[in-house]
């Protein structure tokens, strides 16, 4: 065994055994530094004869590059081990909870109103609004309820002590129907509108609140008859409940502002103890639910709105928005709608991204 | 209105069953609200006779009865009814029977130590009416031991909602006429038989108020015996209708009303003196009505009076002192026609409802005075005997029939139903309309609801079958439906979903508030305050959305909730022009309780502060399309807010788009809620409409060619200088080059002189075509420092 071979074996062994980067560095200096032993060997080459140099140089240079490679390899190994150690010390307990961000919600009444707007937009209806603090002319008289009309008393009206400049008594609208009058006066005919909004009756029990929501529909044109009313309500309810088996039952009724007047029942069926709309109400286990009031707009109302009733006719309907929401989404207590209970809003509220669209179906699945 | 099948069949010859009749009623517009089969719920109740009645040994108000049930030994029953007495017949509930009114099962029990084997029942307990003053008294001929269901004839009872336009159906006869027209059988009108009279009516009858009382007919019947009960068949029908039998005379008038829809009145002749006159009341005149309440009248009200005063609030309620009693022997029968509108006005003024008012105010049959009086007379004389006098007729009822030129094609044009002309004619005729060959339709005067051709369409359609109307699609414009939402509707939709996406829950709160809460937020505005609120808590229309949300937040806190993040989009109610309202669309936000819960990473939980409110205000304004880059932060959020932790956001000094901040401790105290609570109110009507033609293409994309340069400046400024003012001054130094300036540090304390603070601003400079030279940057920096100096700022060394 030559000296060179001994040196190589010793150097490689020591490199292999180096414990850390500092030990490896001092080894590098000892072997390859300016004063290093292998560097010293390199210097001996200059004093050699050409023949000797020719045979020794490759051996010495080979030794140097092998040692340098071994040091580099060892350094990489030590760095990798060091990184692994560091990462091991950085372990996080990912079973701990992540930062919470609050989840907001849209109220069911707003959601349903958006759904209604979407469906009726497709049928060519725009959304109209009117004041909630109304005068008795718009709320009653123009809707064919003269001051002495018994139906006025049936409305449980909230009154203000005030009168407007025309001497009309101010009140909280008892229905969205005054928007019919305001829209006809403003836009004339033909007209197709829905008018959703807050309405008020001085009534409060398990199923009535002094404030609730209604949506009014109005179509005035030249050749509109009860058949169009039926189709419109059928089409709307099918789209709203996303069911093709909605069956309507029309019953004659009475509203001062329509003639003929029609009460509309919708067939329901019992699904696990819940009344679900759909199917023929006369089928076994089914029933009828009174849902909408409607009719052909009374001539007098058309006159009051400044239109010629011999030229224009049409239909109107009204339905409770809260009721539609309850039937579709399964709430059973109207009073909770207006309480602002965070738990109820979390439970029944809608994601902001449930924007109703026709292509996805206007409803938001549970 | 309630009536039994047996009663209906008195007027209608039909083989139809209960279900068919109910379906037909619904079909023609008389909504069936319920059908009761009394036989089911009356199981265990039977006709019984009270043999003896003795005082209960230990209770003043109780009696111990022995009752014959028709089988076995008499039963001992304890009873609290004042009218229980030996010899009477009533209804006994045996142990095991379930009281219909309350679902209680009867048992053998001891009442104050005395054994009781059942219960003698009142009208209300058996759900036969509202009466509960005593137990049911059955006629003498009621067979003891018969099941009450059988005795009562167990005729199914219909409960039908009669719409207010159909007073002619507020009697069983009218319903029968409608059903016959609908093909349910043959109508059997009850003809009034001729009355044998004995001489002229002895007292004068007049109407001095022909407007309020166009017609007043009357007659006297002498020598009646009102101690006898009305006949059993009549009592049964009255009970079916929920009307307790009272006395033969009263029952006869009630029967006339319920069977024929015709209210009438019976006076005790002995209590009258002088002429009986329909006249206007005098202002301040009073009358004690049959309900034992005294009413003060005025001269808009029609009354029936004699020399001594008022005996009847015309068409609404009789007087207590001249009504028929057990001892009455001579009576005056009144049948009149009153002006419907005037009845309504009087009834509303007095707050007095009655079955008579319900009918008179909707309109009774003006042709049914003589017949009604004849039927009433014979109902009375058959039971009570007596000699009727001739009829006195004061005034004339308005019986002129309305004639309508009808176009039968209108039925299809309006009703959407093609009904053959002869069928239309048959329907109208069956409802008592006269139809001439040229379609002039003469309406029966009882049909006050018929005003014009549309009403005749309704008659034809409802009898033919309105449910047969075929769906007809509304014509629709070609192509995809056009957008319909207005800019405000679009803004509200975006805002709503933006607020929800930011973690807020949409609430809907009452539009009305307790007056004190509304005043607290009124800021001097004159509130809308209800005349007749449902409660004091719902009295004043809200001038702000914050109080309603604050109350909701408090309810949440009271339920133990950690916090609430609520928003609402709704109206605030103010005074507008000409006495109308001005309703302003508004968004309110209330953040209360914990913003973040205590957690493993940050230890303590955090509360909301005014910056959270500002964050919501600015973000939501941006969603609503407001130019938030131009907003000015100014003061005067309102006295409801913390004076030092609230602000308004404005476009220009006058246009307030929003207010936000922490609520004033006094506000929190008034609502009894723990703070801090922060709130935002955004005034949607103040947000300017978006400019531009509404095109879809965005401005051309032109990213800066060269990279931005940032420079930091630390200024020493007076403590009270708003950072916003400093930033504005900095930005103003070079409006072209400076694209952003942002405060990244605010510090006061060690190293900063008293009364000062250090504000550090990062300024972003955007080069144009060429990179900035050192000289250019220095020039801008100098300008920044100079501008800041004008605000009292000094560059820190």
From TrEMBL, chain A:
One of its GO terms (cellular component) is cytoplasm. GO terms for molecular function: ATP binding; magnesium ion binding; phenylalanine-tRNA ligase activity; tRNA binding. It is found in: Cytoplasm. Gene3D superfamilies: Bira Bifunctional Protein, Domain 2. Tetramer of two alpha and two beta subunits. PANTHER family: PHENYLALANINE--TRNA LIGASE, MITOCHONDRIAL, PHENYLALANYL-TRNA SYNTHETASE. This is Phenylalanine--tRNA ligase alpha subunit. It comes from Qipengyuania nanhaisediminis.
UniProtKB/TrEMBL annotation, chain B:
Binds 2 magnesium ions per tetramer. PROSITE patterns: B5, FDX_ACB, TRBD. Residues 399-471 form the B5 domain. GO terms for biological process: phenylalanyl-tRNA aminoacylation. Residues 39-149 form the TRNA-binding domain. Signal peptide: none annotated. NCBIfam families: pheT_bact, YtpR. This is Phenylalanine--tRNA ligase beta subunit. It comes from Qipengyuania nanhaisediminis. The gene is pheT.
